[in-house]
Specification:
- The structure holds 2 protein chains of 2 kinds.
- By secondary structure, chain A is α+β, with helices and mostly antiparallel strands.
- In chain A, β5 (224-228) and β6 (231-233) form a beta hairpin.
- Helix content of chain A is 42%, strand content 18%.
- Chain A contains 16 helices and 19 strands.
- Chain B has a 7-stranded mixed β-sheet with strand order 2-1-3-4-7-6-5.
- In chain B, α2 (70-81) crosses α3 (98-110).
- The longest helix of chain B has 13 residues, at 98-110.
- Chain B starts with 6 loop residues before the first strand and ends with a helix.
- At the A-B interface, β14, β15, β17 and α16 of A face α1, α3 and α6 of B.
């Protein structure tokens, strides 16, 4: 073997060791970075493409460094020099042979080279190049095996590209999203009787509060994260993939699913079980019972969206007046239902037992409960009706329809009088004048009787007298003695007098009218119109009379439609003379401290406090604009008053979540305006001593 | 800042107008002890009316059963949600009475259950210091009504704030006199009303 040939072999050995060393160092660097990323992933951080790039760069740098260091193996002369350095016996003969222009002297040097051996340096060099990185790789693998770092999961192409369930393996970044196709199974509460439902790929899951909701998808649950609001929920492996189980909350919330870089939002929309709707059918309205004997049938109806459990009627009897009241209460007609969605129930209420006395008020209502076993049962109530036993001599009602007369007096209604008068008017041209006057006079007498009845109703109420016409009674029925009707002013004056307030100050009631006058005004108008109509009829002018008769009818109709009015609820008008009493309290019995005015806020804080006040006011009618303003204020304060900005942030989030932000806004105000200086005595709103 | 207007709640059931002199008396007291801008007379506001939201403090009293209609219940709930304070006083001063039973039920349905208010609550130091909690009324001391001196007030809390303040102590009777007669009292018995008003306006 010639020297040149031996040199080529040595060069190949060295180059091979450099290449092997580069590969091993690159592997070691890559594995080290990979292991670091594995540990980061365990702590919750996801591994992305950037981390993969870092691993590749680390491996490449390591390999390049080794190759650069071993670049001398590319040149025979440098390899010869490397050997000359380690085998001095060569005496530069090998370098000389390696020179291209030394062919003439090569044969002379073969002898020197043939007598030397360089196997040992080559072996040592190979071991030094390969052993350290090989050892590092071994150590790293040992650490990994001992600590159990998972080598599977999320790096690209590592394992399980289909994300198959049950493999226990991770999912690569390129693997398809496991939350793209999901289903939700809803199991409503048992009391509702609703069937189970399955929703495919829903964006909103609507279900009754308390329903069990199972969200499922394909693939491993590994790395899948589910949050309802801020709370994380556990996802487990199911038969065909991952499964998340929830109970439908009482308030709408967002369910956020996260699969590596994929996110999906679902709205949990609860349906509330409505309370039973209860209607008290009888009595249909508040009633005055003048003679409390016998019994009254109480009946009610109830409906519920999922089923009723029970229902009953409640009564409370309040007795007494002023400061002394006593009460009796009880339950009537309790019934139970086997989940019926609607039902009616009834019970008699005896007016004799318990005995009712004048002034007693019976408050009646119906109550029903539903079958809700989750948050209930819910109770629904009807409106309360009252049965009142009036006190003796009490006229608290201004209902204008008088009770029917015990004996008929033959009054003709105003409507009938108008019809008769219209008929007379039609025949008027065919009748002699005397006949017209005669028939018109008869109608006038009927009109006068009706007017007296109206007068009795009005004046009996006003002054307790049977009629204001008593002075004219003797003249009634005489068409030859025209009577002057009372003017509206006279009538109102009479009404004022009849309120027993004399010429004193009238009760302030809706535009300076006494309540009695206000309530009776339509009847007073009818009364006056009847006077006018009677006068026209007396002189045989039915056409002119019809105008007044129709006005009287319209007034009666208004009176008939008038609401019943109770005269309670007018507290005495006491107006405080603020200038007189302002800060005039006696403080001799009060332990008070000296007070100092609160120092003025710095200009910036005062400005922010003012802005906050205006934004809170804005929130009440324009929540969106108010929120934007709050965010701008937060932005403004975030640098110099972080506590204020933090409280504003809490308030903003609270408002966005639809909750009451009063406390957060209060804290924000206190941050910007300063805590109130609480002291045991009188604070700064009180008068100085 | 707008003036404080004392508002009395008008509800469909019961005798909401049973204590007509309480509003002027409290207005008088507020003016006597504080510099709060206050209107010289109060207003009556139906519980079912949107006008309820104009007033941060609303007084409700009566002897007879309190049963909120649907609109009243919803309005009271919104009123307290928005920061209002409803002060309910049992004018019948009887925990077995219909007012107490029905009012507590109506409040529970509308706002939430009543709980006992600690006598160290800031309400009792909001202006005057009441170290023993709510001041007793002469009606309690005379043994009228339920023959109890109630040691605590009740409240429905919204966070740290009182949304509904409920009294069995019959302040409606205690404070139900013409303010001109206050000069005959050696110690003004309406001072606690200032605390309630100040608390309502500052929390």
């Amino acid at each position: 073997m010639t020297a040149a040939h031996r040199l080529s072999v040595a060069r190949a050995v060295l180059a091979g060791s450099v290449l092997a060393s580069a590969v091993l160092w690159a592997s070691l660097a890559g594995l080290a970075m990979y292991a670091v990323n594995r540990m980061s992933w365990i702590s919750g951080r996801e591994i992305g493409r950037n981390e993969l790039a870092v691993i590749a760069v680390a491996a490449a740098v390591a390999a390049l460094a080794v190759l650069w260091r071993g670049r001398y193996t590319g040149s025979p002369t440098r390899v010869a020099l490397w050997l000359e350095e380690r085998v001095p016996a060569l005496q530069y003969a090998l370098v000389t042979v390696a020179e291209p222009q030394s062919a003439a002297t090569a044969s002379a040097l073969e002898g020197i080279i043939a007598g030397t051996r360089w196997t040992a340096p080559l072996r040592n060099a190979t071991i030094r190049a390969i052993a350290p990185p090989l050892g590092g790789v071994a150590v790293l693998l040992s650490v990994v095996l001992l600590t159990g770092l998972p080598w599977s999961a999320p790096l690209a192409g590592s394992t399980d590209p289909d994300g198959a369930a049950g493999s226990g393996a991770g999912v690569g970044l390129d693997a398809p999203s496991r939350i793209a196709a999901i289903s939700a199974t809803i199991i409503p509460p048992g009391y509702s009787g609703e069937p189970n439902r399955t929703l495919d790929n829903p964006s909103t899951i609507d279900a009754l509060v308390g329903s069990r909701v199972t969200v499922a998808g394909s693939g491993s649950p590994h790395q899948l994260i589910a949050r309802v609001g801020a709370a994380e929920r556990r996802i487990v492996a199911g038969d065909r993939g991952w499964v998340l189980q929830l109970v439908m909350p009482a308030r709408a919330q967002a369910l956020r699913l996260t699969d590596r870089v994929h996110n999906r939002l679902l709205v949990l929309e609860p349906r509330l079980d409505s309370v039973p709707q209860v209607t008290l059918v009888h009595p249909a309205r508040d009633t005055v019972v003048r003679n409390p004997v016998g019994s009254i049938a109480l009946s009610a109806e109830a409906r519920d969206d999922f089923g009723l459990r029970s229902a009953w009627l409640e009564y409370i009897i309040s007795s007494g007046e002023g400061e002394s009241f006593t009460f009796r209460s009880g339950i009537l007609g309790r019934v139970t239902f086997a989940g019926a969605r609607s039902a009616s129930f009834r019970a008699p209420f005896s007016l004799d037992s318990p005995a009712l006395n004048p002034g007693d008020i019976v408050h009646v209502r119906a109550v029903a409960r539903d079958n809700n076993s989750v948050g209930g049962p819910n109770a629904g109530y009807s409106q309360t009706r009252t049965l009142r036993v009036p006190r003796r001599g009490e006229y608290d009602s201004v209902a204008v329809e008088g009770a029917p007369a015990l004996e008929t007096k033959g009054e003709v209604s105003q409507r009938m009088l108008i019809i008769v008068t219209e008929a007379l008017q039609k025949r008027r041209t065919r009748l002699p004048r005397a006949t017209v006057v005669l028939e018109s006079g008869r109608i006038s007498q009927d009109q006068a009787r009706l007017r007296r009845r109206v007068g009795e109703i009005v004046y009996a109420r006003l002054g307790g007298e049977g009629s204001a016409e008593h002075s004219h009674e003797a003249e009634e029925g005489s068409v030859s003695q025209p009577q002057k009707p009372l003017t509206p002013a006279e009538l109102l004056a009479a009404a004022e007098a009849a309120t027993e307030r004399g010429g004193g100050d009238p009760i302030d009631f809706h535009g300076d009218e006494t309540p009695v006058v206000a309530v009776n005004r339509p009847l007073l108008e009818a009364f006056n119109a009847m006077w006018e109509a009677g006068r026209e009829l007396d002189i045989g002018e039915p056409d002119d009379a019809l105008t007044h008769m129709r006005a009287a009818l319209a007034a009666i109709q208004r009176a008939r439609a008038a609401e019943r009015i109770y005269l309670r609820g007018r507290p005495p008008a006491v107006v405080i003379d603020l200038a007189k009493v302002r800060l005039a309290a006696r403080l001799d019995s009060i332990e008070a401290l000296d007070r100092t005015p609160r120092p003025a806020l710095p200009e910036l804080a005062a400005s922010r406090s003012d802005r906050l006040s205006r934004m809170v006011a804005l929130l009440s009618h324009n929540a969106g604009a108010g929120l934007d303003s709050l965010m701008l204020l937060r932005l403004d304060a975030i640098g110099d008053v972080p506590a204020f900005a933090r409280e504003l942030g809490v308030a903003i989030e609270t408002i966005r979540e639809g909750r009451d932000a009063t406390d957060a806004l209060l804290r924000a105000r206190r941050v910007v305006s300063g805590e109130p200086d609480a002291q045991a005595g009188l604070p700064n709103w009180s008068l100085p001593r | 800042m707008s003036e404080f207007v004392f508002a009395t709640a008008q509800y469909e059931s019961g005798d909401w107008d049973s204590a007509p002199f309480v509003p002027p008396n409290i207005i008088d007291t507020v003016a006597r002890y504080t510099s709060i801008d206050v209107t010289p007379s109060g207003v009556t506001v139906p519980l079912s009316s949107p006008a309820l939201f104009r007033y941060p403090f609303v007084f409700l009293t009566g002897h007879l059963p309190v049963r909120f209609a649907e609109a009243e219940r919803n309005n009271v709930r919104a009123f307290t949600d928005r920061g209002g304070l409803l002060f309910v006083d049992d004018h019948n001063h009887d925990i077995d009475g219909a007012f107490h039973k029905t009012a507590t039920e109506a409040i529970r349905d509308a706002v939430g259950p009543l709980v006992q208010l600690a006598n160290t609550h800031p309400l009792y130091s909001a202006f005057f210091a009441f170290e023993d909690g709510p001041p007793a009324t002469s009606h309690e001391l005379n043994g009228w009504g339920d023959n109890l001196v109630h040691s605590h007030l009740l409240a429905v809390m919204k966070g740290t704030r009182i949304a509904v303040l409920y009294s069995n102590k019959d302040y409606s009777s205690e404070w139900g006199y013409h303010p001109d007669n206050k000069r005959f009292l050696s110690i003004d018995n309406t001072r606690f009303a200032v605390n309630i008003v100040v608390y309502a306006l500052t929390r």
